[in-house]
Design a protein that fits this description.
- Helix 1 packs across helix 7, helix 1 packs antiparallel against helix 8 and helix 5 packs across helix 6.
- The strands form 3 sheets. Strands 1, 2, 5, 6, 7 and 13 form a 6-stranded mixed beta sheet that branches. Strands 10-9-11-8-12 form a 5-stranded mixed beta sheet.
- It is built from 8 helices and 13 strands.
- Helix content is about 30%, strand content about 25%.
- Strand 9, helix 4 and strand 10 form a beta-alpha-beta unit.
- It folds into 2 domains: about 150 residues, Periplasmic binding protein-like II (D-Maltodextrin-Binding Protein, domain 2), CATH 3.40.190; about 90 residues, Periplasmic binding protein-like II (D-Maltodextrin-Binding Protein, domain 2, 3-Layer(aba) Sandwich), CATH 3.40.190.10.
- The chain is an alpha/beta fold.
- This is Amino acid ABC transporter substrate-binding protein.
């Protein structure tokens, strides 16, 4: 769903990041995943959204958000119902139908949260025999994603997974560091972090292979470089890393 309004202009990098070839309205799929994507009735914010809007403001683009569960958003992207998603980890299956345009967002460790001592994860082998809460449509790391012997229980949001753990429906929840800590704190769940963790990878701005926005991949990368040079990207990362959890 990309609206184009034709207006001759120079490329973004020759316009000091204020305009691109055509002003666009891009439809971005989002789910509520604080502190990356914070969706409230009166505003939409979070690290990923704030960073993306800094980029689009320099491109002269307008942004519309469409909210849905993470797994549903990936289907919408595949079908061309939305133009973009923010914060996906790159893997081979996804590359078949989406374009990974820019590794805009910082890497985060994948942590294993638990409540009872018996469910602490000290090494990968400790995962076997445990019910592991995972986000529907989520990708964590290759060995884990492909391991058919693991017992997984999925939910649409990390809030649901933490509550499932609290009720004893799962033993462990795997989550990126920031969203896991944020979610547990916000729910008042005293989840602990297992010693075993997996280093994170950068997450990406992705564009639907069916979206005309694919033509503007260079513009998106140029805008990212611009906010990096201006120090805005670093400031936003520090803002969300340093702010107290609610």
């Amino acid at each position: 769903m990309l609206c184009l309004f034709v207006l001759a202009a120079a490329p973004a990098w020759s316009q000091q990041g204020t305009e691109t070839v055509e002003p666009l309205t891009v439809v971005v799929g989002v789910d509520h995943a604080p502190p990356y994507r914070i969706l409230e009735s009166d505003r939409k914010t979070g690290l990923y959204l704030d960073m993306f809007e800094e980029m689009t403001s320099r491109l002269g683009w307008a942004v519309e958000y469409r909210e849905a569960p993470f797994r549903r958003l990936q289907l919408m992207l595949q079908q061309g119902e939305i133009d973009m998603m923010l914060g996906l980890v790159r893997n081979g299956a996804r590359e078949q139908w989406m374009e990974f345009v820019a590794p805009a967002f910082p890497p985060e460790r994948r942590l294993f949260f638990y409540l009872d001592d018996a469910n602490r994860v000290d090494r990968y082998q400790d995962l076997y025999g445990k019910a592991i809460g995972v986000l529907e449509g989520g990708s964590y790391f290759s060995r884990f994603d492909k391991d058919s012997e693991l017992m997984r229980a999925s939910a649409a949001h990390y809030e649901n997974l933490m509550l499932m753990m609290q009720k004893g429906r799962v033993d462990v929840v795997i989550a990126p560091e920031l969203v896991g800590l944020y979610t547990a704190k916000n729910l008042g769940i005293e989840a602990r972090v297992s010693p075993f963790f997996v280093p994170g990878e950068r997450s990406w701005i992705v564009v639907s292979g069916q979206s005309p926005a694919v033509r503007y991949a260079d513009d998106i990368r140029a805008a990212l470089k611009l906010i990096e040079r201006e120090g805005i990207r670093e400031n936003l990362v520090l803002k969300y890393l340093e702010q107290p959890l609610p």
